[in-house]
Amino acid sequence: MINTAEVQGVYLNVPFSDWALLKELIRKFGWKAETREQLLERFVKSRPSNPSISEEEIMEEVKAVRYK
Description:
Layout (H helix, E strand, L loop, with lengths): L18 H11 L6 H11 L8 H12 L2
């Protein structure tokens, strides 16, 4: 089990031909790997379906601060 407080996230561009080797190393070391698409999908799923503030309300706040 990896202690998430001691994890360093990295982004690698790996040639497709080397992906199988890297996946094997990831499995052997017990690391976690996800593609950019998987990361984005996980982020989108974590967002609330009903935000507490609308886009119009956000723009009103921005204008109120910017154009006092």
